[in-house]
User: Fold these one by one.
Assistant:
Number 1:
Amino acid sequence: MRAAESAPARQELLRVDNLVVEYAGKGFRARKFRALTDINISIGQGETLGLVGESGSGKTTLGRAVLGLAPVSGGKITFEGQDISHAGRKQRRVLSRDMQVVFQDPYTSLNPALEIGDILAEPLGVQGMEQAAAKKRVKELLDQVGLPSDAIHRLPREFSGGQRQRVAIARALALSPKLIVCDEPVSALDLSTQARVLDLFLQIQKDTGVSYLFVSHDLDVVRHISHRVAVMYRGEIVEQGPADVVTRDPEHPYTQRLLLASPVPDPDRQEKRRADRHRLLEEQRIQAEQAGVPA
Ligand SMILES: Nc1ncnc2c1ncn2[C@@H]1O[C@H](COP(=O)(O)OP(=O)(O)OP(=O)(O)O)[C@@H](O)[C@H]1O
C-alpha cells in the first residue's frame, strides 16, 4: 500500500464552525439528544480528513450534517465560501454535484435489480446528460475504478464485495464531485481487499484532486489514507492534527487508548481481523525467507 501523498498548497473547500447537531427525542416532551457539540473542522482541496472514534461518537452524524442529512442546531457549515448550514432543496440539488457519499456496505448500497451501467448512468441522467455522453462517461468510470467494460451489463450480485465497492465509488465519481464523504467504506471488506480499495481512493485523489471526509473506527486505515486526522469522543473532537502526529504520538488520553486497542465492535470481525493479520504476516515472512531476506 502507498501512503497518502502530502497535500498540495492548501485551499479551503469545507469548513465547519462550532457545529451542534441535536436529534429530536421520541414521544411528547421527550428531550432532544445532542449528538455533536462545538465541532470545528476544515478540509482543503485535494485533502483527506480522517474522522476516527468509537461507535456512537458522532462520526456518521458529522458526515450526514455536511451532506444536509442531519439537523444543524447551531454553528455553521461552509462549502467553497458559501454558507450551506441550512441549504434548501434547490441549493442541495446543485451541491449534490459537488458532494457525494460512499457508504460502508457494498451489499446494500447498490440497487440489486439494476445493471451496473444503469447504476452509473443514473446520476448522469438526473443532471440531464445525453445518453451517448452518459455511455461514454460510464466506460470512463469503470476504467477509473479498475473494472472491465463488460461490467456494464452485469448485476451487482455477480461481483465481490470489493468490486461492488468499486462500483459505489464509480457512482460517487460520476459527476466529478469536489468532496466525497466516505462512511466506513472499507470496514466490510477483508484486509487485502481493504488495502486495494484504499489504494484506489488514493489514486483517484491524485488523478482528480477530490477531497475526502473519511470516517472510520480503524486508526490504521485512517492513518494510511489521511493527511489530517480528527478524533471524536462522545460528540466532540478531542484532538486533531497531521495524520502521522495524531496516530503515532497522540496527546489526548482517549486517542492513546484508541491507539492501543483499535476498537472493532463485532467480536467475529475482530477474530477474523486477527486471523487476517496473522496470515498476511506469515505470507510476508515466507516471501522474505524465499527471497533470502530475514523477516
Ligand atoms: N437519526 C437519529 N436519531 C436519534 N439519534 C441518533 C440518530 N442518528 C444517530 N443518533 C445517535 O447519535 C449518536 C452518534 O451516532 P453516530 O451514528 O453519528 O455515531 P458513529 O460514531 O458514526 O457510530 P458508528 O461507528 O456506530 O456508526 C449515537 O448516540 C446515536 O445513537
Note: The mean pLDDT is 87.
Number 2:
Amino acid sequence: MHIEISNLVKEYATLRAVNQVSFSVNDGGIIALLGPNGAGKSSLVRMLVGLTEPDSGEIRVESEGKSYPHLPDGSFGYLPEDRGLYQDRTLKQNLIYIGQLRGLEKAEIERQLDHWLQRFELTERANEHLKQLSKGNQQKIQLIATLLHRPPMVILDEPFSGLDPVNQEHVLTVLKELKAEGVTILLSAHQMDLVERLADEFVLMNCGEVIAKGSLDAIHNQLADRQQIHFSFSRQVETGALQSLALDNLQSNAAGTHFEADVDLNAPLDELLKQVAACGPLQEFRRHRKPLHDLYLSAVRSSTATQEIRS
Ligand SMILES: Nc1ncnc2c1ncn2[C@@H]1O[C@H](COP(=O)(O)OP(=O)(O)OP(=O)(O)O)[C@@H](O)[C@H]1O
C-alpha cells in the first residue's frame, strides 16, 4: 500500500485546520504526526480514513493495483481520538462484538482475543466490565479493538494517551513488534521522547501546516540551526586556547576537564577535533544531537510567530 497526500486542505467555518499538507506513506515502517493541540493532526487522520472529505488537495491510496481517495474499508485498523466501546459490557463482550463487526470467524476471534489479552496482560480481567478498568487499561482494550483483525495498516490517534510510563513502554514494544511483522503504522502523539525512539519518519505540524518532515536526520537538517559538541580531557586545560576556536557558549565543569559548546551546523568537525586535541590530552569528542523535543519546541515557537506576523 502507498499513500500520497498532496496539498490537502480542510476548513471548518472560518478556520483552516489543515493547510496545503503534503507527504507520503510507504509500506512498512512507522510514521509519526507531531504537533501541538489544534495543529490539525486528527483532522488529517479523519480525511485519511474517509470520515471527512478534503476541501481541496488530494489523498491517493494505491492498494493491490487500485487507487482510492482514502484508505479502503477493511484495509486498516483505526484508533480514533474519541474512543467508543461499551462501558457496561465486559472486555470480552466488547472485543467479540468488534471482531464480529470486522467479519472475523468465531474461532479466529477467540484466537486473537487470547493472544491480545495475554499480550496486554489483561487475560484475568476478560470478564470485568470496561468501566471497572483504569483509564490506561481501557486504552489498551481500545488498542486491542484496533488490532484484532490484524490489519496491514494501523492509524492510531494518540495511542499513548492515558498510559503510565510502564504501559507506554509496553505499547511501544507492541508497536515495534507490529512493525517487525510488516504492519505500517501512522500515529499521532505528544510524547516526543517515545516517538523519537519509535518512528522512522516524522511529520511536524503547527497551525495546520507541515513545518518539517522526513527521517530524524532530515528533521535535524531542516530545523537545527546549531549543533552541540561535548569533549573532555584527562587533566585540567587552560580555556584560553579553546576560547580562540570557533566555539559558541563554551561551558566547562568546575574541574576544567569537561566542556560543551555550540558550533555551526556546517562546521567541519574533523578540523575542529584536531584543534581541540591540540589544547590538551583529549579523552572524548562527540557531537550531541538535540532531542526531537527541543527541536520541535523551538520550531513550533518560530512557526507560530511567523503565522502571527502573517495574520
Ligand atoms: N468538527 C470541527 N468543527 C470545527 N472546528 C474543528 C472541528 N474539528 C477540529 N476543529 C478545529 O480544527 C483545529 C485542528 O483540530 P484537530 O483536532 O485536527 O487538531 P489536533 O492536532 O488533532 O489537536 P489535539 O492534539 O488537541 O487532538 C482546531 O482548532 C480545532 O478546534
Note: The radius of gyration is 24 Å.
Number 3:
Amino acid sequence: MATLGAQHKHKVTVVGSGNWGTTMSKLVAENVKENPTLFEETVQMWVYEEDVVIPKESRHYDAGSETANKPQKLSHLINTIHENVKYLPNITLPPNVVANPDVVDSVKDSTILIFVLPHQFIPRVCDQLIGKTMPWARAICCTKGVDVGEKGIRLMSEAIGMRLNIYCGALSGANIASEIAQEKYSETTIAYDPPPMDSRNPTPKGSPTSSQVDLISPSKTVPSARSARLKALPSEYPPLSHENVRKLFHRPYFHVRMVSDVAGVSLGGALKNIIALAAGFVDGLGWGDNAKAAVMRVGILEMVRFGKAFFADSVKTSTFTEESCGVADVVTSCMGGRNFRCAKMAIERGETIFEIEQKELNGQKLQGTSTAYEVNSFLKSQGMEKDFPLFTAVYNILEGNVKPEQIPELIEPKQ
Ligand SMILES: NC(=O)C1=CN([C@@H]2O[C@H](COP(=O)(O)OP(=O)(O)OC[C@H]3O[C@@H](n4cnc5c(N)ncnc54)[C@H](O)[C@@H]3O)[C@@H](O)[C@H]2O)C=CC1
Ligand SMILES: O=C(CO)COP(=O)(O)O
C-alpha cells in the first residue's frame, strides 16, 4: 500500500478485460496518472486468461517472429504490446495498465474495484473474492444485467456489494466501447451513494460501531440485501466523494454526470439490452426506422414501469429520461450495439441469435439474451408477464414460441 505523507492513495483494479473492460482500464489509467495525489499510478486489470494468436491483420503480427501464429497468453500479450488484440484491437493501452490473470492478486490492497464482466460471470468471480478484498474497498459496477434467483431480483451492484460486503455503485450510459476507446465524445452516468461517513464528515453519532453502518440497498425484492454491513473508509485515504469518483472516470472525451440513483442507472443499462434485441428483430425484417422507434418507445415505457413496480423505494423516473443511462442508451444501443446487430443478423440469415453470437463476436458476450430470460423468469414469478408485453415478446421470440413478425400485435395495448 503506497503512502503519501500520512495519506494513503487509492489503488484501482478493473475486474474484467473484454471490450468495455479494456476501454475502462484505458481511461481510468489515464486519469490516475493525472491525479497522482489521489491514486496509485498502476491500474490492475484482471484478465480471464486465454491463449490468443495475434491475428494476421493486426499491426503486431510479424510473420518472421517466433511467436507468429502461435497461441500466447492474453495477459502476457497485453503487458508486452500494450494492446488487447482480441477484445479491443488497434487501441494502445497506457503502460500503467497491468494485466493480471490472478483475480485474487489483482484486487490485493485495492480500495477501488471496477467490475466490468459480462453479468453471468459476476457471481462466480465475486465468490472467489470473498474475504480477499480490502474491507473498506468501494466498487463501481459497469456491468449491464440483473441477478435473478429464487429470492427475487437484484441489481448487479447489489450482487457484488452483498457478496463482498462492500459498497457498490453503478456506471452506465450510452457507451459503445469502441467509440470511447477511440476517444470519441460520449456521456455517462455514475450512481454513487454510500453512507455519509465516506466524506470527510465525522462518523455519525450513534452508529452501531465506529466503523460499521447499514448498507442501504435499493432493492425491495431481496430483503437480505439490506442486512449487509459496510466498513468506513479510514481517514488516511482521500475521501471517495462524488468529486473524487468523477476524477477517476471523467475524461475530455467521456463526460460523467454523478447521481445517487443506483437502481435507475443499473436498470437502464440492463433493460435496454432487451429493447435492443427487439429493435434488431424489426430491423432484420426490413421494417425501417418507424418500426424501430415504436419498439423503443414501448421498451422505454416498460423500463420505467419495471423500475416503479420493483424498485419503487429508490428509482427515480427522471434518471431514465434525463441521464445518459436511460433513453440515450436505448438510442445508441438500438443503432449500433452488439445486441441490436446480432438480433438483426439472426433474422436476416435465418439463424438463431446464439449461433450468430458464437460466429460473429469472437468471444464477446451478448447480455440481452440472458437478461430477457432472467427478466421473464422474474416476471413469471410475479404473475406480471402481461404487464411487460415487449419484454415478454422478446423472450418468446428467443424461445421460438412466437415470430418477430408478431411484435406489433403482441405489444398493442389490449382494449
Ligand atoms: N462493449 C460495450 O460497448 C459495453 C459493454 N458494457 C457491459 O460491460 C460488461 C462487460 O462487457 P465487455 O467488456 O464488452 O465484455 P466482452 O463481451 O467484450 O467480452 C467477454 C469477456 O468475458 C470474459 N470471459 C469469458 N468467459 C469468462 C468466464 N468464465 N469468467 C469470467 N470472464 C469470462 C472474456 O475474457 C472477455 O473479457 C457487459 O455487462 C456489457 O453489457 C457496457 C457498456 C458498453
Ligand atoms: O451497452 C452498450 C452501449 O451503451 C453496448 O451494448 P451492446 O452490448 O449491445 O454492444
Note: The chain has two domains: 3-260, 264-411.
